[in-house]
User: Fold RNA helicase from Mucor velutinosus.
Amino acid sequence: MTTTFDSNDIILNDPQQQQQQQQQQQQQQQQQQQQQQQQQQQQQQHELPHFTVDEYESELNYFYDYDQDMAEAVNEAEYQDYCYQQEQQEEETDLMDDSLLKLIVDVQSYLSEAPTDSPLFALQYKMYTYLKQRAFEMGMEIPPSF
Assistant:
């Protein structure tokens, strides 16, 4: 029976080879340890820091306060926009009302010079009552002759 050995087989009788093998095993173990250490370091780099309960609550409070401040700022900006839009609409309404009132007053002035038997007399009376009503709504004092 023939036995063949390759270079990786251990011959137990040779102390030099045993020593080399032990050194190789030690080197492999050291390499494995280094790899494990590197993996642990990488994991530690990717892990979040550990907080105490107070630090955690402080962080939560900070972000809650920040969120509240942002919500208040957004609400304030929306309120300012709303107020601005309301003012613009009121100005437009006032301008429209002012224009209408001016037109009615001008027509009223023109019709006051027309004879009372004019076909526009009914229109004049309607505009007169409208002017009186608007003046009352606006809080103006209405002179008795008006």
In short: The two ends are 141 Å apart (CA to CA).
